[in-house]
Amino acid sequence: LRTDEELIERILSGDTRSFEELVYRHKNKAMTLAVRLLKNYHDAEEALQDAFVRAFHALRDFKKDAKFSTWFYRIVFNVCSTKLAQRGTSEALSLDNDESSSALMAIPSDGLSPGVRFEQADAAQLIQNELDALPQSYRVVSTLFFIQEMSYEEIVSVTGEPLGTVKTKLFRARVMLRNALAKKFQPIETP
Amino acid sequence: VNHLTHQDILDFLDGTMTRERRAECERHLQTCPRCREEVALQKFIAQSLKGQELVRPSASFTRSVMQAVLAAPKEETLWQKILNNLGLVFIAVVFLGTSGIAFLQKAPASTAPTPTQRVANEVLSQVSNSVAQIADMIGTGNLKIFVIAFCAVSLLYLADKFFQKKLTLKV
Q: Distance (Å) from the C-alpha of residue B20 to the closest C-alpha of chain A?
């Protein structure tokens, strides 16, 4: 199995068909990111196609010391941001739409008790719904961290945000998800 | 009891805390069911999100991308750009060349020409001779027509490049 870098070498030397393998390899994870960003399947697919075409034509600019996926997600991120900006400012991918988060910093005293139990399937669904309901920029970093399994540094490369901001957003997103779960699944009293 | 903070729990799970702090957290977790529950909860959130089913694009997606990739014009290199704009380059060379020679050739009558001006004069006389020969061959009238036609085509070409669309002649 060829690595991404080997495929890129082949593409640059004229083997355009090797790009098909790259598309096949990255399309699902990239599509998941695009859908999370745009919240619309059709728009996400359109944006992703655009991103792949841009990536193909910019392959010569790809620096080999970075991972292709990180470089490519940056393109997906930019294409989706442009699409969101075209839709209107309210939806634009503002990366500073922080909420006042003092309320979510503290673990609620009526949070999960040692006896808490919940149906895992319901909880997993709830977490997905809550992820979709997160503010745009929190959703982006959460998707990149959990689904794309990127490190903080890679997320910084994709979003262009400072490391501290990325860490803060991810922290807040995780606390929000935790609070949503705790609220939904109240503790079951232990006898 | 000093419970672990959210930050402690997430750092503990991400492995981003110092060895000493980690040891402290582990000791606390051994005796605190509430914090253990919090760790389990954050672990569950991470696992749920990591285990999430990926969204797949439509079945024809890869084919569409490849079609778009192959159909889109390739990025031009500098030489390709020059070759594709050969007309523009030619006009620029003619314009700059004649203006340059005319500028260099201009010299006060009292002073001797500089070496650059001598070269310019030489080039100009060569060009004049060539033009005279062409005029002899095709006739002065035809040469005028040729020059006018060349200027007209050049102007149309420049206008075409400027507006970035093909001009069509309406008959």
A: 22
Phi and psi of A181, rounded to 5°? -70, -45
- Closest chain A residue by Cα to residue B70: A16
Its pTM stands at: 0.62
| Contact assignment for A128 to B48 by CB distance below 8 Å | yes
pLDDT, tens digit (0-9, with 9 covering 90-100), for B6-29: 889 999 998 888 999 999 999 999
Alpha-carbon distance A32 to nearest alpha carbon in chain B (angstroms): 5
Q: CA-based Rg of chain B, rounded to a whole angstrom?
A: 39
Say if A171 is an interface residue toward chain B (CB within 8 Å).
yes
- The residue of chain B nearest to residue A56, with distances taken between CA atoms, is B69
Q: Predicted confidence band at A114 (pLDDT cuts at 50, 70, 90)?
A: very low
> What tokens were used for B55?
């969204």
Handedness of CA A47, A2, A154, B36 (dihedral sign): positive
Q: pLDDT tens, A154-164?
A: 999 999 999 99
Its ipTM equals 0.73
| List of residues 6+ apart from A49 with CB closer than 8 A | B61, B64, B65, B68
**Does residue A94 surpass a pLDDT of 70?**
no
Nearest CA in chain B to A151: B14
Number of residues that this document lists for chain A: 191
pLDDT digits (tens, 9 = 90+) for B88-124: 778 788 778 777 766 766 656 566 778 887 887 888 7
Q: Are A115 and A150 in contact (CB under 8 A)?
A: no
Measure the CA–CA gap between B31 and A117, rounded to whole angstroms. Answer: 20
Q: For residues B92 and B22, what is the distance between their CA atoms, to the nearest angstrom?
A: 71
- Phi first, then psi, for residue B30 (nearest 5°) are -65, -25
For chain B, say whether A16 makes contact (Cβ under 8 Å): yes
Determine the distance from the C-alpha atom of residue A110 to the mean position of all C-alpha atoms in its chain, rounded to a whole number: 31
